[in-house]
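Worked problem 6 (solution included).
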Amino acid sequence: MKRAVEAYVYQDYLNMGTIRIQKTRPELFHYVVKTYCKNKADYLEIVKLYHVFLEEHGLAGDEKLMINPRTYVNKIARCDYALWIWPRSIRCYNILNETMNCSYLKST
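Solution. The predicted structure is:
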């Protein structure tokens, strides 16, 4: 019974071991960046890696998950989990946590 309920509740999630990732473009791209971009990486290479990730997990046929590199670049530049490095590179960096940890700067 429990497995049937879990299967129904998490039908729109991808199981990656102990991690469940919602099958949406932002969540999947976030997972790819967090997993594979600990160091500086070229944006177009990351997009290719994302598409390979979709193929490996049987999601390549879903048009809602595909990324057009020319239009998605603006969303990545604004996100809080990646640091945009000019001209077209990104690195996984939890900007929100780093901003919160720098509260001592506000007191000066």
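Discussion: The longest helix spans residues 43-56.
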